[in-house]
Amino acid sequence: QVQLQESGPGLVKPSQTLSLTCTVSGDSITTSAYAWTWIRQPPGKGLELMGVIAYDGSTYYSPSLKSRTSISRDTSKNQFSLQLNSVTPEETAVYYCARRITKSYVYDYWGQGTQVTVSS
Question: Chain centroid to CA 90: how far?
């Protein structure tokens, strides 16, 4: 059974850096059949793909976030992480990590999501 679990601070001050980690169990993040993603959902809005880290460590970022976003991984811990710089209150959202089937837009496993509030 694949499980993903987000962790990190629930409150971040404006202009600071949001840092989250996703711990994966039941599968390896180096498995070529899958990629690993960060997705967020602000209150009352839809889901937004923030970025992807592939099985080989290559990354893709949403163009609107590319200048402020970094996704990295620790294969020894089977974790991948998100850093989002210079956050604003409008980036208050539930942040999810999810597994995506390679070469598709199918997200088959999700973490439960973590609420991050950007506020002073």
Answer: 17
Distance of alpha carbon 76 from alpha carbon 79, whole angstroms: 8
**Beta strands in the chain, from DSSP E residues, in sequence order:** 3-7, 11-12, 18-25, 34-41, 48-53, 59-61, 69-74, 79-84, 93-101, 107-110, 114-118
Backbone phi, then psi, for 55, in 5-degree steps? -60, -25
Residue 55's Cβ-count burial label (10 Å; 0-12, 13-18, 19+) is: middle
- The alpha carbon torsion through 76, 6, 60, 31 (nearest 10 deg) reads 40
Model confidence over 46-91: pLDDT tens digits? 999 999 999 999 999 999 999 999 999 999 999 999 999 999 999 9
The dihedral through the CA atoms of 110, 93, 116, 34 has a sign that is positive
Tokens of 2: 């694949």
